[in-house]
Write a structure and sequence with these properties.
This protein is 78% helix and 0% strand. It is mainly α. It has one domain (2-258). The longest helix is centred in the first third of the chain and has 31 residues, at 59-89. The protein starts with a helix and ends with a helix.
């Protein structure tokens, strides 16, 4: 019981430290919040009139859940970068040399990233409401949709922590090059039914697509449905995919932290 309590206290200490650093970098905060808003304006207002939603429906309402998902996925790039920088600067070594819970140190990072992601989703949702997006499945379903988005973010945090402990900051910067196609080969901006056959399969089974499709279903937004098993069971997969990531990368992250040598 004491070990659990110490781990919880240490998690909060590390999370508070990361949040304080975040607040002290207002330029980065503004940039993180501005990017998804600008993307919504570009795709929703500039390209929206030329986009088609499979099965019909307003493109802005189709777009917003996709933007929620992309924002969540892009957050892993920040996690990789910050963890890698801490390890490279010796901060992580100082944590390891202190009488702190090893699980609590990496868990604190996940708490801070979830707080940041929640704020980003809130700002993006407010922007969407201004542009005409809305949820039609009731408040409870809307909250469940945001919970699934944060569940994916929590899972990706552990992927980011592991990769951040694995690579140098220079390599961490290149993570964006891989995150962008990951979020594009999905149902974020275009219905998979409108893609070529092989790409449609990739998009439908992309873990991000499951969360986005589940969010659309819970929000009551257009673009839900399809012939594949993945397209017909988005909520189930939106729970299972992140669970697999957590089961794999949480212990890997803790093990890597314990054996870290730079």
């Amino acid at each position: 019981m004491n070990a659990v309590r110490y781990a919880a206290v240490d998690s909060w200490v590390v999370a508070r430290r990361d949040l304080v650093h975040w607040v002290r970098e207002p330029v980065r905060v503004v940039a993180n919040l501005a990017y998804p808003v600008i993307s919504v304006l570009i795709f929703g207002l500039v390209f929206g009139s030329a986009m088609t939603v499979f099965g019909g429906g307003d493109y802005v309402e189709f777009l917003l859940p996709g933007m929620f998902g992309q924002t969540v996925a892009f957050g892993v790039g920040t996690t990789i970068m910050m963890v890698s920088m801490d390890a490279d600067r010796g901060v992580t070594d100082r944590f390891r040399a202190s009488p702190m819970s090893q699980t609590g140190v990496v868990a604190g990072r996940s708490i801070a990233d979830l707080v940041n992601s929640s704020l980003e989703l809130l700002v993006l949702a407010l922007c969407g409401l201004v542009l005409g997006w809305s949820f039609h499945g009731g408040l409870l379903n809307a909250l469940l949709a945001f919970a699934l988005l944060l569940w994916l973010r929590f899972a990706l945090v552990w992927v980011g922590i592991y990769l951040g402990l694995l690579v140098k900051p220079e390599a961490a910067q290149a993570s964006w090059m891989f995150l962008f196609p990951l979020t594009m080969f999905a149902n974020t901006f275009v219905s998979p039914e409108l893609m070529p056959g092989w790409l449609r399969v990739v998009a439908e089974w992309n873990p991000l697509s499951s969360t986005v499709a589940a969010a659309r279903e819970l929000f009551g937004n257009p673009g839900v449905g399809g012939d594949s098993w993945a397209a017909q069971h988005p909520v189930l997969l939106a729970v299972l995919w992140p669970a697999v990531f957590v089961a794999v990368f949480w212990p890997l992250s803790v093990l890597k932290y314990r054996n870290l040598s730079r």
